[in-house]
Amino acid sequence: MRYTSICRAPRPNLTGFDVKAFVASTGPSANDPWAKAEAWRYTGPFTRLNRFKGSFPGLGIATVAFAAYCGYEYLFLKDEHHGESHGEGHH
Questions:
Q1: How do residues 4-39 score in pLDDT, each as one tens digit?
Q2: What are the start-end ranges of the H helices in 2-90?
Q3: Domain range holding 58?
Q4: In a domain, 7, yes or no
Q5: Which of 5, 11, 36, 77 lies at a 20 to 30 A Cα distance from 53?
């Protein structure tokens, strides 16, 4: 008989600490006295979306302005030296 095929009984818990009972008890309490006092932190203007909505003021306007400038530069500001070789005509 191989060593790995032996079915062993679970080891007795020497400390008496039950991990499954601990995990079950960490959930929300049915009669939490502070639940009402803490509820305002996650509603209305304090929701996650509303807290981070104003994190980068002006980013939208700056992005549009930068894109408009890049488009203007590409269309109207042509480089006059484009296509010339720098070795022949420059002194």
A1: 666 777 777 788 888 888 888 777 767 777 887 888
A2: 19-25, 35-38, 48-53, 59-76
A3: 37-78
A4: no
A5: 36
HSE on the CB side for 61, CA within 13 Å? Answer: 3
- How far apart (Å, rounded) are the C-alpha atoms in residues 67 and 61? 10
Task: Give how many domains the chain has, as a whole number.
Answer: 1
Give the separation between CA 35 and CA 57, rounded to whole angstroms. 33
Q: Is residue 60 part of a domain?
A: yes
pLDDT in tens, 37-86: 888 888 888 888 888 888 899 999 999 999 999 999 999 997 776 666 66
Contact, 40 vs 46, CB < 8 A? yes
Query: Comparing C-alpha atoms, which of 57, 56, 60 is closest to residue 68?
Result: 60
Residue 31 lies in a domain: no
